[in-house]
Design goal:
The chain is built from six helices and three strands; from the N terminus they run βββαααααα. It has 145 residues and is α+β, with helices and mostly antiparallel strands. It is elongated, with a radius of gyration of 21 Å.
Length: 145
């Protein structure tokens, strides 16, 4: 008889006839606390196992699976209202809002999905803005990012 796997361990990776690999993973949805299962697919067994590890890590951090991908501008709106509104002065809040609305939202960086943004994208944005605005103002932008 096969050895029983622990609860939530999912299935062993299996290979389809077309050569692609897959496995099923059980997880507890952070929003509803329901037990759910999902299929993870990849080109190799190692890729599937890496995706499984990343998926379970994101669940542990409270990220909703299959959630709509947020853009930077959507996240900054939420960040400003939820995290900063009561913790900074009204003047600072106004400055942050102006920076977000006038510089970040209209840029390509603001329209990018959060999971696609890399350090190089942020640095490119800061370099481009550094040529056009004062260094102090650029420092405030950096705080908003």
């Amino acid at each position: 008889m096969a050895e029983r796997r622990e609860n939530g361990a999912g299935t062993e990776p299996k290979q389809d006839a077309n050569g692609r690999w897959w496995l099923k993973v059980s997880y507890r949805d952070p929003a509803t606390d329901e037990l759910k299962r999902t299929t993870i697919r990849g080109a190799s067994q190692g890729e599937v196992l890496a995706k499984k590890k990343e998926f379970l890590k994101s669940i542990d951090l409270g990220v909703k699976p299959k959630a709509k991908k947020l853009t930077l501008q959507e996240w900054l709106d939420t960040w400003l209202e939820v995290n900063k509104k009561g913790s900074v002065s009204v003047k600072s809040h106004t400055i942050y809002k102006t920076i977000i609305d006038c510089h970040i939202k209209v840029s390509t960086l603001g329209k990018m999905s959060l999971d696609k943004i890399r350090r190089a994208d942020v640095q490119k944005f800061l370099n481009e803005k550094g040529e056009k605005v004062a260094p102090r103002y650029l420092g405030q932008k950096h705080l908003a990012l």
